[in-house]
DNA sequence: CTCGTATTATTACCAGGTATTAATTAAGAT
DNA sequence: ATCTTAATTAATACCTGGTAATAATACGAG
């Protein structure tokens, strides 16, 4: 009953899910190549697993995005914006997913905390182009897989088109990260 | 010369752009219906306006989103390590891809420079776990799409299990980023 | 009426599928 | 060695939402 080929059907289907998890934009042909089986087999597997075709998957991803936070020129923000008062203060939430942590320790890699705070700081400034000039940051405590990081940012000063922004990131009641950013607002023509 | 139908070509094309701006998931057939012209006309309009077909538009939106979530890759290092002397110095190269830049300006988003330098700094330290403690960084000059950023890092000091690392990132002969990082080496059991 | 632009229609082709039916293969049981 | 059955592959017709190219038609100005 249980056939032993190179891989069992079940193994292959698990790999298929893993591949699509890593990259939902793979065609059946590419998947067939990756898994060493024919295209019809991939189709049957998708059917059994209830996985829709490439174009549907793509659209689902796109619609998620489009429905979510098209407010600012998004795609530019790390984390989800939950509250913002342009030119003043803002809050964003980042949920730590497996691909963001170090393999061994499950600790969030530092640059995600930086990216969340930095992009929130940039989002606060209402200009065509906002660039980070400098930053001073402190990593206070490791953040772990599945934790939720809430970043708070507020503009504390302004000189011409330079803004000074302070951020604090928390997990629960614990501070995990603090940053001071200087960002510069520019218009598209003065580049 | 100027034909006066229900609407001019120009009016219609403006409406077309407006419709797609509001909802990028409209097919040519739906647009034709909305604007009261034939499908071929819509195609010609898109051609003139340089607007890609539905599936391409959908994919672009989806990739923006996907790029945002997974932007900071899965490897532990951002950029490619080209030279390293553990405990002392290292060099990594990062090529700026479309998903790393701001849509409008094609300028590399700051946290990539941070991530490259930070992960290089971490790579220099030979310990089971290395965490960033603090950082002070300066963004000197915008980096553009397709440019190659070379990050140089060296350990300048050490106190117990704290290391002080300075980095400089260059595009060609131009400095684009500088950073000072303090990283802390830990063993797995003392977490 | 005629010229030129705009529009519409038609046709052949493509990717990436769905859905179905049939043929082939692999491997364990007898 | 053959029988059996699931798994796999092949083959075919059809679908959407297009590209690209060409031809036919409408329409208004001169």
Structure in words:
Two copies of one chain form a homodimer. Chain A has helices spanning 9-22, 28-35, 39-49, 54-68, 110-124, and strands at residues 80-85, 89-95, 129-139, 148-159, 162-171, 174-186. Chain A folds into two domains: 9-64, Orthogonal Bundle (Arc Repressor Mutant, subunit A); 72-190, Thiol Ester Dehydrase, Chain A (Roll). In chain A, strands 1-2-4-5-6-3 form a six-stranded antiparallel beta sheet, covered by helices on one side. By secondary structure, chain A is an alpha+beta fold. The radius of gyration of chain A is 22 Å and the shape is elongated. Chain A contains five helices and six strands. In chain A, a hairpin with a 3-residue loop joins β1 (80-85) and β2 (89-95). In chain A, α2 crosses α3. β3 of chain A pairs antiparallel with β3 of chain B, so a sheet runs across the interface. Chain A binds a DNA duplex (30 and 30 nucleotides) through residues 1-5, 9, 27-29, 37-41, 43-44, 47, 53-56.
Summarize the structure.
The structure is a homodimer of 191-residue chains. By secondary structure, chain A is of the alpha+beta class.
Number of helices of chain A: 5
Rg from Cα of chain A: 22 Å
CATH class of the largest domain in chain A: Alpha Beta
pLDDT < 50 stretches of chain A:
68-75
- Give the class of chain A from helix and strand content and strand pairing: alpha+beta
Question: Superfamily at the CATH H level of the largest domain in chain A?
Answer: Hotdog Thioesterase
Give helix and strand order of chain A, one letter per element, not per position: HHHHEEHEEEE
- CATH arch. level architecture of the largest domain in chain A: Roll
Shape descriptor of chain A: elongated
